[in-house]
Specification:
Elements lengths: L19 H4 L15 H5 L12 H4 L33 H4 L3 E9 L4 E10 L12 E8 L6 E2 L10 E9 L9 E8 L7 E9 L9 E6 L5 H6 L5 E9 L4 E10 L13 E9 L2 E7 L10 E9 L2 H4 L3 E8 L7 E8 L5 H11 L7 E4 L3
Antiparallel strand pairs: 1-2, 1-8, 2-5, 3-4, 3-6, 6-7, 9-10, 9-16, 10-13, 11-12, 11-14, 14-15
Protein name: Synaptotagmin-1 isoform X2
InterPro entries: C2_dom, C2_domain_sf
GO molecular function: calcium ion binding; calcium-dependent phospholipid binding; clathrin binding; phosphatidylserine binding; SNARE binding
Amino acid sequence: MENDQHHYGSSGTPTPTSAAAVRDLAFYFPPTKSDSDTGAERASPAAKAPDMSPCVSKLRQRRASMHDAIDYTKIDTKLYDKILVRNKSVPSIQEEGRGTLNFSIHYNKDKSLLTVKIIQARDLVPCENNGTVDPFCKVSILPKRWNQLNGKVLKSTLNPKFEEEFVFEMPAGDLRTSTLEILLVHHDKFSRGNSIGKVQMALCDVDLSDKVIIWKNIMKITSEDKDRDRDIGDLMFSLSYLSSAERLTVVVVKSRNLEHTEKGKITLDPYVKVTLIYAGKKIKRKKTTTKRNTHNPDWNEALVFNLSREYIKEITIELVIYHDNKIGNDEILGKVLLNPHSTGEEKIHLGDMIVGKSTGPRWHKLTM
């Protein structure tokens, strides 16, 4: 019977020696006492000993392991009922991608000329109708955008090789505040063309000490871009140069679809100012009469300039349509610029005049 006896202390609770068998199964760590505990409390841990009952084994239950089999009955399936939806305001790269454009930039400090060469484009977005595009480029310098140059149209290709150069007269001081913009447009003979995309690059971010070749993603045209690049009308005129008399004649015929710069204004009083520019200086200018209250004026006026033969190959001819304001400065409605660096219809028209080829009246798109 001695072996079956339990030893109790004077308090009636099991003494540490009576819990020998339990001590092999569990350990008790008394809670940390603060500095305010009395010495008597520290001296009698046996009085605070836990109840060494069979429930102790539950506290020692083994934690689940990652190697244990999954109990699918304990999974809350409601957590997985929601369908993930892509946020439409954050489109993916593929949704934004409109192809890539390869071009180069070079600046000649001595002549103050910025040369932009459009080399090629890849993976352009096809038109919905025929699965391809007839692309051409519009190159301009922002924010002034006073000299937009148009390139040649390439037929039925999503990977056009342009190999075209566009030259802008630009003082070195304007480089830090200017941005190069290249618009890619699908040529449509029944409309003004559909925009494919755009590339913009701040010139202050480019080291122009040497020629730079760049690949850049083509971005989608925004509603603001479309509003800025909207159709602002056309101007018809003819050019002729009589070499023997050293006389240049510009016949301003008519204009169509003019728009006021301020939305909502109905009346227009347009006239055309023709300026001859040589070596960056305005040397001669003349203007037509003003036509009142019309968006489609007819002038049929010949403006004649005496111009030496030595100037003719380097001359710049600028035609600007103004709205005649009765109060304040006159407003520019659009312009056409022809010079040795022009492209498209402007290049052809000027070239025909220089070689003495007959040049009847031709339509030209107005730009800002």
